[in-house]
User: Fold these one by one.
Assistant:
Number 1:
Amino acid sequence: MWDLYRLFALSTMESKDREFLNAGVVCNQQLNALADKIQDIMTRIRPHAVKLVDAWSIPDYLLDSALGRYDGKVYEDLYNRAHRLNPLNSVTFNPNYWEEEIVMGSGDGGAILAKL
């Protein structure tokens, strides 16, 4: 828990660095060292990240993460997000008609069909 507290404190200092500098409580050298300290703390916290998130019992639909699924269907969800839920997959033409049009997914291997 001490590392989490330090991570919160140092990341707050990093995001509000001008205020701390103007108040005279830190110097430039200390602010420059913050990024390295934050990375060190994150390295120590990383092995416990899943347990920390699980401790809050946040449901999958709120996390909206394919990798942290409770049911373990990581690859199925990644496929679903990439192929079914991605709005770019519903666009099969270039809306800029004055440029070269490339039709994707029509069985032509993505060849240029027409030049306008």
Note: The CA atoms of residues 79 and 85 lie 9 Å apart.
Number 2:
Amino acid sequence: DTNILPSSSTHPDSLSKFPNSPVYRESWDSVRFVVRVFFGDIQEVVTDRGIRCAAKTLNLPVQLGDKKETKTKNIDEAIKSERNLCRLRHPNIVRFLHMAQPEPATVVVFMELLDGRSLERFIDNNKPLDELTIRDFSEQICRTLLYLHSRQPPVIHRDINCSNMIVCADNTRIKLIDFGLSIKLEQSVSRHSAFPESLKGTLSFMAPELLGIGTSECEQYSRESDIWAFGCSVFQMASGTKPFSKVKNFWEMALDLYRRGAPALPEGRSAEFQDFYSRCTAKDRSERHSAEKLLEHEFLRKKSDSQH
């Protein structure tokens, strides 16, 4: 698994000591390397304030060159807007502690440590998941999306997928991590709003409109594209594989989406579940249900003792 946060316990006492201050004064020391991620890595660190946390370092692949001033300004603006992540407080969202910019094209995001494994790894070990588990996880994710999408301005995750969700150690709680910051930062220095090469890691979770399907040009990330990506995560929970896992490149993916839309769920799933999935993955984004509406869907409202 290449996207899991450290399997360590959070230290709430050390976090509460400095709730409104940066997590460090001048420096931090790496305790251990955790994992390499898109544009960088995650390390477990201890700061000079005695706070143990996760530090995700992003090294943007940009040549500042002649337009250094403009690109640096764009990066600064993107980081400024993303500092709002540190204000998020929800039981299903990793706590963002601080965001630093030690170099013009380097960003460090400090987050709480989590004890758990990615949903992708959880699926690999238990695939496919039964409907009771899928219902429980889906309800948690929908409540989280409702919280994000209802904020002013709305918080768009931009990178919903099973490797960006952590199943906590009790195997019952889901936490959303990695809010597509690397995508937004790269867009801030690129002319291409949704250029396929820059989104390799999340291609199979990208909504049709982000690929220019059904629109005159590629759309920006939105509440609806988050819902589509959530639907793709539901597919992976139900099937054990990523959607569009057999396509080889961007163009195959776009053609497959244009012709067939979202892949069908495996046979044997309940009618309520099939309908719920279809509401997440409507090709026309205006027909997708909002997180609020999905929470009212019969699939999520079924009693916990109903059929698997």
Note: The beta strands are 28-37, 40-47, 52-59, 96-103, 106-111, 116-118, 165-168, 174-176.
